[in-house]
TrEMBL record, chain A:
InterPro entries named among the record's database cross-references: Cell/Rod_1, Cell/Rod_MreC_2, MreC, MreC_beta-barrel_core
Pfam families from the UniProt entry: MreC (PF04085)
Domain Rod shape-determining protein MreC beta-barrel core: 93-225
Matches recorded under PANTHER family: CELL SHAPE-DETERMINING PROTEIN MREC
Any single Gene Ontology cellular-component annotation: plasma membrane
Keywords in alphabetical order: Cell shape
Superkingdom assignment: Bacteria
Name of the protein described by the UniProt record: Cell shape-determining protein MreC
Entry-linked Gene3D superfamilies: Rod shape-determining protein MreC, domain 1 (2.40.10.340), Rod shape-determining protein MreC, domain 2 (2.40.10.350)
GO BP terms: regulation of cell shape
Entry's family note: Belongs to the MreC family.
Automatic annotation (TrEMBL), chain B:
Domain of life the protein comes from: Bacteria
Name this protein carries in UniProt: Rod shape-determining protein MreD
Keywords: Membrane, Transmembrane, Transmembrane helix
Taxonomy of the source species: Bacteria, Candidatus Joergenseniibacteriota
Transmembrane segment boundaries: 51-69, 76-93, 99-121, 128-147
Organism this protein belongs to: Candidatus Jorgensenbacteria bacterium CG11_big_fil_rev_8_21_14_0_20_38_23
Transmembrane as UniProt keyword: yes
Amino acid sequence: MKLLRSFFLTLLCLVVFIVLVVYRQNLAQYFVAFKNFISGFFDQAFSEQAFQELKLENQILKLELENLKKSVSTSPYHFKRAEVFSNYPFSDNLFLVLNVGQNQGIKAGMPVFVSENILLGKIKDTKRALSEAETIFSPDWKESVIIGPEKIKAVLKGGGVPTLELIPEEAKIKTGDSVFNISPDLPYGVFLGTIDKIENSGEPWLKAFLKTPYDFHDLNQVLIMTDYETFK
Amino acid sequence: MKLLSNFWGGGAFLVFLMILQDHRLLSFAGINPNLLLLGILPLGFLNKKNLWPTVGLFLVILGLSFFWWPFWRLKILLLLLLVFLVYFLKKFLTGHPWLDFLIAVLVITVLFYLLGGFLTGNQLSWDLIFGEAAYNLILAPLFWWLAQNLFYEKI
């Protein structure tokens, strides 16, 4: 009897092990949804007033987006959609593993986007069926950017919260100004995010923090620009 | 048979931790606790006679992490190696398993990033490293209890 119980317990453990391995992605999605559900209770948008404000803002943004789509020509580049296969599991960096690789023509250096207009990073390394993407949230990330309508030059330094450094003290920038890439190894003028907070620590340079219109941890899919090299 | 059920139970537990770590489900202010370390480190303290189940579990984790995290194999290998060293070096610690476990969590967390940074050439962020060390220490009692009472004791 004891042996039989142990046998079934072993079988159960083995089944749980296999289910966890095989359905890892699906299970993770449930966990993420649960985490978002819990964190939603502590979100400011949980109040009725904030919800109504967000609803109104959403409608305005939808209208603006429609107008923009009509006025802006479509991108001359080609994109390949990729699923996020896994994340860098430790604290010191934020890389992504994507489910496309050399077999799909992916090469190191190809730009990676959240959507066609929002830059996320670039491909760092590839394998036959997978590729590793370095993102603007990686501490090693550095690129030249311009800020706002005045096109103030700065350096974007990666990190959990990417920062904009070497901004001249007299520069006329404000919270909400858009930040665009001007690094030659990535497409010119692509949107990265907006300025969240500006710090003046008495040095001749200002420091600002970048706010992205997405949450890095919620990314399930990204776009890889596959023909940037040919346009360079 | 019990050995097998503990082995696969421990394996399932570690895979569950890997899923949590991969999707940063317990991350706080950008700090992701090293659940894999917290899950496998008790093995170095609880096993006294049989070494092969520990080695077996290590191999299972190594195989899965090579598949899930193929770009960071060196780091996973480094982590497992550091945990494996604890098995042999614990006699040089205080002799109180619980205290030694906490010391090992702290030392391995720091050593892992230090050696990892040296091997890969990545920048070290001490705020994050010490933040993670503190987070790991906060979670450590729970993992020690789980390992002692649920999974590894009989291995």
